Each structure stands twice: as C-alpha cells, then as structure tokens.
Amino acid sequence: MPLALLALAVVAFGIGTTEFATMGLLPQIADGVGVSVPKAGNLVSAYALGVVVGAPVLTGIGARIPHKRLLLLLSGLFVISNAASALAPNFGLLFAARFLAGLPHGALFGVGAVVASRLVAPDRAARAVSKMFLGLTVANIIGVPASTALGQQLGWRSAYWAVTAIGLVALATLALFVPHQPRGQQSGVRHELRAMGNRQVAIGLATAVVGFGGFFAVYSYLVPMLTHLTGFSDSSTTLVLALYGVGMTAGTLLAGPLTDRALRPTLYAGLVLLAAALVAFYFTVHSAVPALITIAFIGAMGSLITTPVQMLLMAKAKNAPTMAAASNHSAFNLANAGGAWLGGLVISAGWGWAAPNLVGAALAVAGLGLAFTGSLMDRDGDRSEKVTSSSPETSTTADAIAVSRRT
Question: pLDDT tens digit string along 175-187?
Fold first, then answer.
C-alpha cells in the first residue's frame, strides 16, 4: 500500500491504543491520583465526550485548512494531550487531559478517511479507507495489551508516554509521506454544515449509533461475561480480547473490497450477521471453544460494517465529506455509551450476564431497519455515488472517488 496509507494507519494505531488503554489501567490510575476505581472510570467518559465534541468542532474550525496541514495540527494536539495525561498531578487535571486527548480523535479519522480515499484509484477507495482502519484493529491486538502491561509494570504514566511516542512517529510519517491536497474556494464550515443537513447523512449517522450500539452492548461487558459464565480467569481475558481484535482485523480486511463492489449489500449483510452472532453468543458463552469462535466472529462483523457506513456518509455529503466522515466517530462513541447503558440495564434488572447479547442483537436489527429506510428514501440510489473534493483540482471525474456502483 502507499506509504501515505501506512502513515494514516500509524495514526489510527495510536488513537486505538490511547482510547482503550485507560480501561485496562483503571486500578493503577485510581491509586496514583487517589480516587476510587469507579471515579477513575469517568476518565473513559471524558475521552468519549472529547470525541463527540471534537469531531464536528475541530473539523469545522479546520474546514479551510489543507488536509495535510490539518492532519499535522491534529496529530500535534494528540501528542500534547497524551503527554499532559502522563504529567497530570491530580484527577482533575487528568480528567481535563483525557477530554483534550479525545478532541482530535474523530477529526483525525474523518480527515484521514477523506485523504486515504483520494490516494488511490476510484474503484479502490473503500480499500484505502479500510487500510487506515487496520491501525485501529491492530491496536486492539498489540497496542492495548502492550500498553496495559507496560502500565502495570512501570506505572500507569508510562502507558501514556508510550502513546505520546507513537504520536510522534505518526506525526513524522504524516509529514514525510502524505501528499498535499488543496482545498477549493467553496470549502468552509458553512459548506460542510450544508452537507451535514443531507437527509441521507442523518440516517447514516443514526444507523451508526444504533447498529454499533449492538456491538458495544456486548463488548462493554465481555470480560465479566467471560469470567462469570465461560469460566475464564481474569489473567486470560487479555488474550481473549486480543482474539476479538484478530476478528476485527479480519472484518476490516474484508470490508474494503466488499464495499468497493457493493456498499449497501455489505452494510446489510454485516448487520444481519452481527445480530445472528450476538444471538449465538447468548447460547455459546457457557462453553469455552464455541464462545471463542463466536467472539472472533462478532469482532469481524462489527468491523465489517465500519467501512460501508464511513463511505456512505462521505458519498452522501457530496463534495464536503470531511465533517460527515468525522461525525461518524462521534456516532461510534454515542453508540458506545448507549450500548453500554442498555446492556447495563438488563444486567441490573436481573436478566443475567448474557442478556446484553439479546439487547445487542435487537440494536443491530434496528440499525438494519434504519439502513433499509435510508435506501428506500435515497433518490440517488440508482446512480454511482462519488465522494468529491470541493477543490477544483480534485472535483473532476478522474479524481472523484466512486464508493460503489450501486448503493
């Protein structure tokens, strides 16, 4: 793949590592800043809130900044915020640093997805975007377990220093390998906001929130499910989570070429199979080998729907796709919060540790319904969808990015 895509994957690797490493180090962080573990858990919420706020705000602020320069500025903020997390002397400042660290998350993914789609031939756009997303899935296999182990051995601050170092590597590779992509005269925050008003963009974001809510309803409670129902020890759950990451990587590799061929069918199939896998896990969670197979499949199907949703939003935003692409990651974090909340409700109601699987399946089916609704309401459904730049240099047919032959 082009070195520029590798640079974008490094950025995604750093984001994935910093997003999830905090979860594995909550006891150490709580001891370090003198708070309870539940209160330390608010640091995860602070990061998610930063993502939700930062994706549209920073994308809007940077609407006239050339994409490469914007990527460098956002990566610089990523480095500074993680260094601030490592240096924070108390819980209040650490909370603020984690919120700051979440701000560039969605904007980096959104701008990066647009840049990636324009680095390759039109019929390989989704594959390019999925290559960037591979960095996020590999972070779940390598980055998160490694940073967690590092934090447990050398102190929780060392994990954030490691993420800071990854950010510096990403900054250097972006500067070296990503080409300049100019913005056109029509670019600007109003231009991006008008694109966000598209009805198909709104339905796409709703699909992401509801459909991915099904994924996170289970992922949020996977560790207690494995320990209480499957019989795994606490020490072995890290390896199981790495298996989840392997499944996510496989799904991401499949998503690119399938989305380039048929965007909406890939999205439909992913949601149907995700719902089926979650129902299956409700029954297989009590046996080790079937549970592991199902976990890997859930990870794969969760990732399979990431790329088509991203490309659909970029297509429907027409020639102002950046804010729509970034807002997709705000939607993911809303899905994370909503799915975890609904999963917790059924556990608290006494339905058992396996009950979030049924909630997740219902959310996946609801997401499928929203996706079908969007298709029925799509007046452009019979035409090739293109993600075009607002720049005159890249808005020609030769540089337009074909998302699918038929959505």
Answer: 999 888 776 555 5
